[in-house]
Amino acid sequence: MRTHTGEKPYQCSQCDKAFSCNSDLIRYQRTHTGERPYQCTQCDLAFSEKSNLINHQRTHTGEKQYQCSHCDKAFSCDSALIRHQISHSGEKPYQCTQCEKAFSTNSYLINHQITHSGKNHIHAANVIWLS
Asked: Which of 95, 61, 87 is nearest to 76 (CA)?
């Protein structure tokens, strides 16, 4: 019901963020505390959200339930499929702030930006998202 009224009675004690559901507040507070209560039983990784653990566990099982509709590739999480599908669209949403070149993935942009800096790392401030 609070979704429709816009009421957000659950306020974070560490910042100004407020939520309509207490469970959303609890999940959000982990960004401040760094708490990662969801531990993988097959390796040392831990996650702040259960859904991230479930996606991670697919790397151990090899399960790839997200199939690309344009080719034979399949992925273990939906975000990887979405990132991949950009390659079929020709969309290049990551633009270099130092020249006119644009890229389909952030990692391609970062690799490109090394050519401008001569360094082996790039700061996130040098990346812009085209929408």
From this structure: 61
Report, as an integer, the average pLDDT of 32-43. 94
pLDDT tens digits, residue range 40-57? 999 989 999 999 999 899
Sequence-ordered list of residues with C-beta below 8 angstroms from that of 72, at least 6 positions apart, any chain: none
Q: Which residues contact 101 (CB under 8 A, 6 or more apart)?
A: 95, 112
| DSSP notation for 74-110 | EESSHHHHHHHHHHHHT---EEESSSS-EESSHHHHH
Using DSSP bridges, classify how beta strands 127-129 and 94-96 pair: parallel, antiparallel or unpaired: antiparallel
All structural domains of the chain with their residue ranges: 94-129
* Cβ pair 18, 10 in contact under 8 A: yes
Which helix or strand (DSSP H or E) is residue 56 part of?
Answer: helix 50-61
